[in-house]
Design goal:
With 166 residues, the protein is an all-alpha fold. It has ten helices and no strands. The longest helix has 17 residues. The radius of gyration is 21 Å and the shape is elongated.
């Protein structure tokens, strides 16, 4: 038997993916009884309509496209009470790509800058930290920037192939 909570869950899931905890909270705010909510969510999961795995993958892809790094994405998903192992597994699948993502974010923000001063470099690093990139990734980015500058590679021509060949 489909309940009103199930219908409410479906209406929410049709719009976008939701994590289990987020879905429970939204249904509670709408006034559905807790036992009915848990039953409805279990049914949605059984039917494949709700999946925390899919939710984590969607949020991760969206935040990467928006220029965020793994630390910021992890914090957001943990705030939504998503299972830590699920988050760690999904983010680890992107492990080899974080430097490339950081480069793209940096290039988009600072492509028109000339030779930066020490304080400008610190601000750039702070910006990348705020975006959720690790200090290791940021250090690699600036090491690559210095290496490419020494080789005479212009920023516009800088790509991941330059990094992989070093």
């Amino acid at each position: 038997m489909k309940t009103k909570a199930f219908a409410g869950a479906l209406r929410l899931l049709v719009r976008r993916e939701h994590g289990t905890h987020e879905l429970v909270n939204k249904l509670l705010k709408k006034g559905y009884p807790a036992p009915e909510i848990h039953e409805a969510i279990a049914e949605c999961q059984r039917l494949g309509l709700q999946s925390d795995q899919r939710f984590v993958e969607n949020v991760t892809r969206a935040r990467i496209r928006q220029g965020y790094g793994p630390i910021r994405i992890r914090q957001e998903l943990q705030a939504l009470q998503i299972d830590r192992e699920l988050v760690d597994h999904t983010l680890s699948q992107e492990q080899e790509n974080w430097l490339g993502y950081a480069i793209e974010v940096w290039k988009k923000k600072y492509k028109d800058r000339s030779e930066p001063s020490f304080s400008a470099i610190q601000k750039q690093k702070q910006f990348l930290l705020y975006r959720g990139f690790s200090t290791d990734t940021i250090s690699m980015l600036f090491n690559e920037l210095n290496t490419n500058k020494e080789k005479g590679i212009a920023l516009q021509d800088w790509s991941l192939t330059d990094i992989e060949s070093n």
